[in-house]
Amino acid sequence: MTLLKRFLPRTEFDSYEDFMENYRLNVPERFNFGYDVVDAWAETETDKKALVWCDDRGGEKTMTFADMSELSNRAANGFKARGIGKGDRVLLILRQRWEYWVCAVALHKLGAVVIPGSVQLTEKDIEYRVEMAGIKFILTVDGLKDFDFESCPAVLERVDTRNEDPMLIYFSSGTTGMPKMVKHDFLHPLGQIVTAKYWQQVEENTLHFSASDSGWAKFGWGKIYGQWLCGACVFAYDWDKFTAKSLLEKIQTYKPATFCVPPTMYRFLLQEDMASYDISSVKRWCNAGEPLNPEVFDRMEAITGCKLAEGFGQSESSVLVAAFQWIEPRPGSMGKPAPLYDIDIVDEDGQSCETGVEGEIVVRGLHNPSGLFKEYLNDPEANAKAFQNGAYYTGDVAWRDDDGYYWFVGRNDDMIKCSGYRIGPFEVESVLITHEAVLESAVTAAPDPVRGQVVKATVVLKSGYRPSEALAKELQEYVKRVTAPYKYPRIVEFTDALPKTASGKTKRAEIRKKA
């Protein structure tokens, strides 16, 4: 792991405590992921694999770091010919096409700002992004045919970028309102070393599979930065439509060693006969995006023999809390804090909460850790709310147990206040999913003239079950028996599918608005 040692004086640790105390990052004076990672691998190991790619139309491609280095130079020259230079903002809407990796690296080399976008974006969404971010150029899948970068020159003179220059802007998922612009600088990829090596446990020259569209932050978590810094090869499957069956087939065929998907995908995988597929190549199963229900954790362990390792973070960060390699995963727990950050749980006055007491997750001591975003661009109100008392307030509520494990409760905006009780949606959802009829659910607040708010459950049923008043009553009684009775959903609504963001997160705000 010669390249990684350029950035980490020490790469191996004996325990979680050793990891927390002694993890150090060597920050270069001028770090650029394109030159200092992609080109560096290409210079030292010309045959080292960077990307294995396939799609649903028979397309297949394997690329080395040497390929990626050359093609990104050509693409950079193609962007330059179109007037793109340092600081210019470019929107990429390229699904999981192999060209995304080439174009993103090219733009990093130019010092331009990459803005990932999902193909699910509407015309209104794109107009909003163009206006808010001052986007100069948009490249889409259809636009690739007119962007013949492979015919451009392969030689590129290094552009001088500074660590504090903007490199990447994510538009937040928008689960509670209009998306905010999350600005990361050129040090952000270094923060993803912890994500890839110590949580996902990718290893050099092995295949890592994270299922994610290029338009959202989990792509940066699992399909490029930390993985390539560690020398792993990224597997990319550009599906036309997600099906659990095709995902299992790809695992069986390409044999990734490490794997990470959102909980929603695990729920669909479990609807298939997973035992009929050879998925034994995967030695590390991870989940991120939303908290994992204990029911899914237990069923996956029964099938794979492995405990799912949860990771928690945001578009604003690299992994903040996770079941790192020395930590025994616990069903329903996010794990323990990452060494890059001083994580705490605080009350409404900003004071540390005692063990077992719910509060907001914060990152204290903002000494500019790599991986954490710099600001919400052009949004002083959001920045004032997020950055207080020398800390970053994540907006996520959790509690900590006696052993230092963190347990997710919900977003601040998702908390339900019913007759004086504070109810987190995740606990009720985790109970509902253990019922034999429930595939997934979203628990939200609904207005009530007496109680202020009541718990509402929007439920997607498994195949073979039909909505009925009797089933709704059965689910209500079930929740009463399994958890505290005051948490039961007084309203049960059945639906064919939950509204989701491009990153797979449930749009609870949309459900609340309908209520």
Describe the structure.
The longest helix has 17 residues, at 65-81. It contains 15 helices and 25 strands. With 515 residues, the protein is of the alpha/beta class. The strands form 5 sheets. Strands 1, 2, 8, 9, 10, 11, 12, 13, 14, 15, 16, 18, 19 and 20 form a 14-stranded mixed sheet that branches. The protein starts with 15 loop residues before the first helix and ends with a helix.
Please give the number of β-strands: 25
Which stretches are low in confidence, meaning pLDDT under 50 for 5 or more residues running? Answer: none
Query: What class do helices, strands and sheet pairing give?
Result: alpha/beta
Question: Average pLDDT, to the nearest integer?
Answer: 92
Instruction: Characterize the main sheet.
Output: 14 strands, mixed
Please report the distance between the alpha carbons of the first and last residues.
Answer: 53 Å
Overall geometric form: globular
Oligomer: single chain
Any chance you could write out the topology, listing elements then pairs?
Elements: H1 16-22, H2 33-44, E1 49-55, E2 60-64, H3 65-81, E3 89-93, H4 98-110, E4 113-116, H5 123-133, E5 137-140, E6 166-171, E7 181-185, H6 188-200, E8 207-210, H7 217-222, H8 225-229, E9 233-238, H9 244-254, E10 258-261, H10 263-269, E11 284-287, H11 294-304, E12 309-312, E13 321-322, E14 333-337, E15 342-346, E16 359-364, E17 375-376, H12 380-386, E18 387-388, E19 391-400, E20 406-411, E21 416-418, E22 421-423, H13 425-432, E23 438-448, E24 452-461, H14 469-482, E25 491-494, H15 508-514
